[in-house]
Every structure is written in C-alpha cells, then in structure tokens.
Amino acid sequence: MNENETATARRTKPALEVYRCALRNQIRDGLLWGSSLVCLVLMVAALWPSLRDSGTLNDLSGSLPGGTAEAFGLQEFGTPAGYLKGNLYAVLVPLMLCWFGISLATSSTAGDEDAGRLELLLVLPIGRRTVFLARSLASMTTLLLVGIVTWISLIACCALFDLDVSFEGMASVSAMVTLLAMLHVGVTFLVSGWGARRGAVLGITSTVMMAGYVLQAFLPLSDALKDWAQVSPWQWALGADPLSGELDLIAAAALTVLTLVLTALGAQLADRRDVRSV
Question: Where along the chain do its domains lie?
Fold first, then answer.
C-alpha cells in the first residue's frame, strides 16, 4: 500500500465508524416509525373492501367542490389508486416521512451540538465536514429503509385487500415520497450547518415542509397563481401522480441533486464555524 492509499484509508475508517455509530443510534427510531407507517397502510387498506362495496366513496368524492377534492388528493376517490392517494400519499405518508427525516437529522446535528455530544466527537482526529456528511448519509440510509418497508407493506396490503394498483405505481410513489423526505433532510443539515439551535432547526425545516405542501395543494386553485406551484418540491414529487405509474425522472433527479447540494453546503458551513460548547 503506497502513501496515498494509506492516507485515504486513514480518512475513510473514522468516517465509516461515525456512519455506523449514527446508523446504530437511529435504528430504534426507524423501527418505531416504520411500524407506525406499516400500521397506517394496513388500516387504510383493510377498510377498502367494505367502503368499496358500500358505494360511499364515490358519493364523498362527488359531493366535494372540485378545488377541495384536488387540494386533498380526493379526485377519483372511488378507485383503488385514488383511495390510496387521498388517504395516504397526498398528505399523510409524505408528511410523516418528511418529519421523520427532519427529526433524525436534527437529533444528529443541532441536537447533539446543543447537548455537547458533538464537541466530544470532534476531539477525535476527524473533520467537522466528514462528521456531518457521515451523519447525513446515516439519516438518509435510515429514511430509505423506512421507505422500503412502507413500500413492501403497501404491496402486501394491496394484494391482501384486493386493491388493484400497478406495481410500477406503488414503486414510483414510494420512491418519490422518500426522495421528498430526503430533500428535507438536506434542508435540515443546511440549517444545522449554519449554526441554528435545535428548536430553530425544527421550526425552520417544519415551515419549509408545510410551505411546500401549501404551495402544491392550494396554489392550483387559483388560475393566477397555479403556475407558482411548480416551485414546490411537493409538486415535483407528486405533481405527475406517481401512483398511476408515471415516474417523473426529471423531478426525481432534481430532488436528488438538490438534496446533495443542500447537504454539501451544510457540511461546508459547519466546517467554517466553531462548534457550540455547553
């Protein structure tokens, strides 16, 4: 092994250890949130046969004004795809995944910094940028695993309760809501890298999350403002109705690139400032 390879190994090993440690610390939270999402999917899917046979779903969808039904994803509520969209993928599942990602990223950055744990870690021969990047990768790994578990539960529940939704649609919507949540992880690392405390990080990132939803859901109700909905990451993720099987590759790439840029900027900001001491 030459000198360059030795230096690379020395830099890589601490980063891997930080990643593994962060991942271990997040496993319990991942299990809890994954179980909650599985239970939610199961509960919604289990109600489908009785609601379908009663005919109330079409009546509900038809009784709502067009704008209201569109804002809450309740168009075609009487179809399997429309039922899952209205109950799960228009609001609930994206919000839960985004909030889970925000809480993970906040705990591993601003939360640990406020508690003094990050300062202890940085006593080791490892850079702040490396710590932030390794912890961001751990948060996104945990989020990805929860997204996969939710997707598998959706496949199983659709087969079990006779929800006729295509495999491509289930895969597309699961991928897009997971990418949307990862984007909010990137926003969290950016705000944390800037130096905000835990409460401020949660407040700012939650505001970004809700603002994105409001722009995507309600601006299309106005003819004058509907074009501005395109600035929302929620529109990128859900605007093409991925549950129908149409995966917007350009939107997926945009979410991925923006996540990477925000995370890298956060790590760079963290590397340029002093860590708060308790």
Answer: 15-271
Residue 61 — pLDDT band, cuts 50, 70, 90? Answer: low
pLDDT single digits (tens) 213-270: 999 988 887 878 888 889 999 999 998 889 988 889 999 999 999 999 999 999 999 9
Per-residue CA distances from 80 to 123, 148, 189 (Å): 55, 21, 37
Token pair recorded at residue 145: 């695993």
Task: Give the pair of three-digit tokens for residue 89.
Answer: 């993928």
The yes-or-no verdict on residue 4 having pLDDT over 50 is no
Give 177-230 as a DSSP string.
HHHHHHHHHHHHHHHHHHT--HHHHHHHHHHHHHHHHHHHHHGGGSTTTGGGGG
